[in-house]
Amino acid sequence: IAGIKTVSDTNIGDTITLDTNPAPKPLPGFREAKPVVFSSIYPVSSEDFESLSYALEKYKLNDAAFIYQKDSSAALGLGFRCGFLGLLHLEIVQERLEREYDQSIIMTVPSVEYHFVLTNGEEIKIDNPLYYPDPATIEKALEPYIKTSIMIPEKYMVVVMDLCIERRGENSRFNYPAPGRVEINFDMPLAEILYDFYDRLKTVTQGYGSFDYDLLDYRVNDLVKVDILVNTEKVDALSQIVHRDRARARALHACDKLKDEIPRHMFKIAIQGAIGGNIIARSTVAPFRKDVTAKCYGGDISRKRKLLEKQKKGKKRMKMIGSVSIPQSAFVAVFKSDND
Fold this sequence. Notes:
- The chain is an alpha+beta fold.
- It folds into 3 domains: 29-108, Elongation Factor G (Translational Gtpase), domain 3 (Alpha-Beta Plaits, 2-Layer Sandwich), CATH 3.30.70; 114-221, Alpha-Beta Plaits; 225-322, Elongation factor 4, C-terminal domain (Alpha-Beta Plaits), CATH 3.30.70.
- It has 8 helices and 16 strands.
- The protein has helices spanning 49-60, 87-99, 157-166, 190-194, 197-204, 244-261, 301-321, 328-334, and strands at residues 37-43, 67-73, 77-84, 105-107, 111-112, 114-118, 123-126, 138-153, 170-178, 181-189, 210-221, 223-230, 233-234, 240-243, 269-275, 278-285.
- Strands 6, 7, 8, 9, 10 and 11 form a 6-stranded antiparallel beta sheet that branches. Strands 1, 2, 3, 4 and 5 form a 5-stranded antiparallel beta sheet that branches.
- Helix 6 (244-261) runs antiparallel to helix 8 (328-334).
């Protein structure tokens, strides 16, 4: 008796055997697909969580490589943490959920699986910045590298090389398969291609560049977790694990995008990017401000100063007790590049 109640209780590659004549071991030849890229999916409206859950369960029936589990965020509510074989797989899942299952979803910024070796010798695997270990306990951090294969017309060779080096590409190799065409191979961190690399490649090659990659190995790098704080409160859905050299640029991008999307309040809103307790980027949403000196037509300047100081104290009290509502569009904007 197997006790199978749902389709999800079985996996492709399972060996079915008889109770009276059991197989000593599973049949060989099947290798389970391992996810490489991870992202969280949340419904735009929290009321649609059950509908999204049902849609993912149905989708899983004809996509064995897709995996998911329940997840939650203080900012976005209940959702699912999903694993994909690559960026193309991620885009296909997103498109099919929206077209075939009529789901309105928000996807967090894609991330990869990082390996951390702790000071006690333990090695842990992290695919969600929420579970980033205490920096004091990290001995070394490793991130996945890929071998890129970029096919372009020869005249775009210089700009494509600059793009790859900007994304921490190393160990460049060249191949000329045909006159006027060149294949460029780089060893590059997988995390660097998740963030608008393909769009940039198409832009600099005017649409003539093609891109493919294969996983290589894990290599030691200086990785940090960048947190985004809105009015001193951490927004866990916007946290990212990035290389230290690119942390400030990513934090500035997120702060500037949020500044454009968060509506103005009656008090000043500080949007900050931080590594631990160190603030590395900041933007400020200006408050609405009443002209309290409008009724002062003359007289001593000290009267105007007194009114302005009184207003300033009121704004300070409001900031301490006021909560900031972040619109859903702000999360989408942060994950888009400046070229979108």
